[in-house]
């Protein structure tokens, strides 16, 4: 993999996926004081974020000129 591919992979990881990562981290924090009260809401939020953020990532990737 050349340097350009490595750079666009790093950019792709930051396009919209930070929200998914944040929510997933909350779900994994079982020691959070209000975890049981919030976990189902977080799962729903994660499902919505995945739909939106994956579409954003897909669109971003489609716009890139990737040199294999």
TrEMBL record:
It comes from the Bacteria. This is Uncharacterized protein. The lineage of its organism: Bacteria, Pseudomonadati, Pseudomonadota, Gammaproteobacteria, Alteromonadales.
